[in-house]
Automatic annotation (TrEMBL):
Gene3D superfamilies per UniProt: Terminase, small subunit, N-terminal DNA-binding domain, HTH motif
Source organism (scientific name): Sphingobium yanoikuyae (Sphingomonas yanoikuyae)
Protein name stated in the entry: Terminase small subunit
Highest rank taxon of the organism: Bacteria
Transmembrane domains' residue ranges: none
Biased composition, class Basic residues, residue ranges: 1-16
Annotated GO biological process: chromosome organization
Residue span of region Disordered: 1-24
């Protein structure tokens, strides 16, 4: 560069536009955070909470359009990846937790004598599956304790202390449904098979139709070789 010549800025011409580097407006950024704030995700609800004014079908259309914008899709992906890294959420860990819920043994909630174990005595799988541990105790009233308290004027004050006795104790446990965990594993592993659509080779009706093709129906008109007679 010669003396006195102004430096030229580097040209961006020909460089591909990176959606992740595009800046969002404050309202768009709030939409992204509101969208990820609840599950299942609801774009229309996030659109309203972000402060957009449209309602009804217009809001649903606008929310869907926002989700398709490359910058917003990149921001959602970036936040998800950042949260996953922060909390060490991996596919393997999620699958491991689902496996605990799907394959735990309910018998391991009990001791050999039939009594329930305390939560601190449960194994990892049973502790993960446990959702409720309710204890109910039954009491009955007993004759109150009576105490005669001396008074300054020489008399006595009769005091009664109510007394109850525990006569029963019921412990109830609640745990996760195995089917829900198994369904989640199937989805995560990609084992879920979509139902065959009508008219596809996998649909039994299609096979029946194909077998019937080329077979003359009893109701089909048949040309007669016999000539008519008067």
């Amino acid at each position: 560069m010669t003396q006195g010549q102004k430096p030229r800025k580097a040209s961006r011409k020909g460089r591909p536009k990176n959606a992740a580097t595009q800046r969002l407006s404050m309202q768009q950024e709030r939409f992204v955070h509101e969208y990820l704030a609840e599950t299942p995700h609801n774009a229309t609800a996030a659109y309203a909470r972000a402060g957009y004014q449209a309602t009804g079908q217009a809001a649903r259309t606008a929310a869907a359009r926002l989700l398709k914008q490359p910058a917003i899709k990149a921001a959602i992906a970036e936040l998800r990846a950042r949260d996953a890294a922060k909390f060490e959420v991996t596919r393997e860990r999620v699958l491991e937790e689902y496996a605990k819920l799907a394959f735990f043994d309910p018998r391991k909630f009990y001791n050999e004598d039939g009594t329930l174990k305390l939560p601190t005595e449960l194994g990892d799988a049973e502790a993960a599956a446990l959702t409720g541990y309710d204890v109910e105790e039954e009491f009955i009233g007993d004759d109150p304790d009576v105490e005669m308290e001396d008074q300054a004027h020489g008399g006595k004050l009769k005091r009664q202390h109510a007394k109850t006795l525990a006569v029963g104790r019921t412990v109830k446990i609640k745990y996760q449904r195995k089917k829900d965990a198994l369904d989640s594993i199937v989805n995560l592993m990609g084992w879920k098979k979509e139902p065959a659509q009508l008219g596809t080779p996998d649909n039994p009706i299609t096979m029946v139709v194909k077998e019937m093709q080329g077979v003359r129906s009893a109701l089909s008109p048949v040309a007669s070789d016999e000539g008519g007679s008067e």
